[in-house]
Amino acid sequence: MLTNSLITSHVLSFQPLLAVVLAQGLNVVETPLIHSTKTPPFTALIKAGFGTPAQEVTGVFDTGSSDLVIPRRDSAICQDVQQQCSGTDFETGAVRPNSSSLLVQRTPFATNFVNGVQLDGTVAVGAVSFGGSAVSKVQFGLVSNGSLPPQTPLVPIFGVGPIQGEAAQELYPNLPAQMKAEGKIKSNAFSLYMNDFRAANGSVLFGGTDSAKFSGELRSMPILVNNDNQIPSFVVSWDALEFVSANNTEPPAQKTNLAPEGLPVTLLDSGNPGMSMPSAMLSALADQMGTTFNRDEGVGPVRCNAADSKLVFGFRQASVDLPMEMLMLPLTNDDGSPATDNAGEPLCQLPVDVSDEEPASLGAPFLQAAYVVFDMDNQQILMAQAVVNATDSQIQEYP
C-alpha cells in the first residue's frame, strides 16, 4: 500500500499577524500563510486571536467558503477522537466565549464541507486580533457538535469567500467586509501569495498588493455569477491547460493541449489541498506522464524525475506556469521505505482528483505558482505569475 509522504521541510513556525502598516501610511493588513509539517500536504494555515483577552486559534485559510468556523472549547466536537482543540500533537486551539468577552447569540449556525465534515453550533460576535490591531465586531460560527469522516481531523476554518456564500441564516459582513467597514482596509479585497510549500511561508495581504511577489502585470477577469445571478464563490472562466514536457529543450517548447474539448469554469479554493479536474483532462495528463488513469483511483504513480515538466494554465489574458516539481509527493511503502517502479526509479503522487461536475477546483497546489487578488468590491479576480520565495516587499494599497 502506498501512502503520502510530506515533501515540505519547513518546520512549524507561527509568526504573529502583522498590524496595519502605519509606517508607510497604508491601510493594509498582512498575515503569514503558515506551511506546517504537522498537517497534510498543501494545507495553508493562519493564526488569529479571538476575544479580549485573545484566545489563539490556528486554522485553514479558505477562499472556498465564507465563514469563520471555530470550535467551542469543552464542547462535544472538542471531545471527538479527531479533535485538535487541545492536548494533541498538532493543537489548533478552540474558544471559550465567557473567558474573552465574546457575545454568543441564540441564532443557530450550521455548515458542511465537500470533504464530508458537518458542524453546527451558534453564531458569536467579538474581536479578532491581527497582531497590534483588531477587527472589533467579527461574526463567526462557534461550533459545538458535528460529524467528522474517518481520518479527517477537526480544523478551524477561516473562510473569506463572498458574502453570498455564507452558511449563516442571515447574510452579514464577513471578515474582509468587516475589516473595510471598520476602516482597517479601504477595499474589500485581499491578495494571496501561497508560495512554494517546500519553502518559506506565504502571505495574505488584506487591502493591498505586493508587487515584489509577482512578475508581469496583474490581469483581471470577472467573478462569475450563478444561475440566481449571485456570487457565492470565487468562480472564474478557465481557458487553457497545457503540458510542457521536460524533453522539450529546443525553443519554442511544444505544448500539449490537455483539454481539446474545452474546460469547465473553476473555483479558486485555497482550502482545497488538491486540484479537482474532469476525467478527460486527467486521463490526458496521465498519458503525458506515462502512468495509468481510471475514474475510481485517478492518476497513478509517476516517476519523480518527471518534475522538470510543467503545466501552463490560461485565464483570459493571464497565464500561470506551474512546475511539476512543486506538485510531487514522494510515495512510501508500508514500511516507510521509498516506493519505486520496476526500474528502481522513485515514485511520486500528484495532488489531483476527478471531478466531472462544474465547477472544477484549483486549490493550494495550483495557487503556489499564482499571485491572486480577490476583489469583491469590483467583483473581479486579478492574477499574475508568482515570484516563488520572494524576499523583497513592495506593498501598495489596492486599488
What does this structure look like?
It is a single chain. A hairpin with a 2-residue loop joins strand 7 (118-130) and strand 8. Mean pLDDT is 92; it is low at 1-20. The N and C termini lie far apart (50 Å). The chain contains 3 helices and 30 strands. The chain is globular and about 60 Å long. The chain has 2 domains: 11-208, Acid Proteases (Cathepsin D, subunit A, domain 1), CATH 2.40.70; 214-389, Cathepsin D, subunit A, domain 1, CATH 2.40.70. The protein has helices spanning 175-181, 279-289, 364-367; strands at 3-4, 29-35, 44-50, 55-62, 68-71, 103-112, 118-130, 133-147, 157-159, 189-193, 202-206, 208-210, 214-222, 235-236, 240-244, 255-257, 266-268, 275-277, 293-294, 298-299, 302-303, 310-315, 318-323, 329-332, 347-349, 352-354, 360-362, 370-375, 380-386, 395-397. Strands 3-4-9-5-8-7 form a 6-stranded mixed β-barrel. A 5-stranded mixed β-sheet has the order 14-17-27-18-26. Strands 1-24-25-21 form a 4-stranded antiparallel β-sheet, with no helix packed on it. By secondary structure, the chain is mainly β.
Kindly summarize this structure in a few lines:
With about 400 residues, the chain is mainly β. The protein has three helices and 30 strands.
How far from one another are the termini?
50 Å
Looking at CATH, the homologous superfamily of the largest domain is Acid Proteases
For the largest sheet, list the strands in their spatial order: 3-4-9-5-8-7
Shape: globular
* Biggest pleated-sheet summary: 6 strands, mixed, barrel
**The CATH top-level class label of the largest domain:** Mainly Beta
The poorly predicted ranges are 1-20
Number of strands: 30
The number of domains is 2
Helix content: under 10%
Mean pLDDT: 92
- What would CATH call the architecture of the largest domain? Beta Barrel
CATH topology of the largest domain: Cathepsin D, subunit A, domain 1
Strand content bin: 35-45%
**How many alpha or pi helices?**
3
Structural class: mainly beta
What's the gyration radius in Å? 21 Å
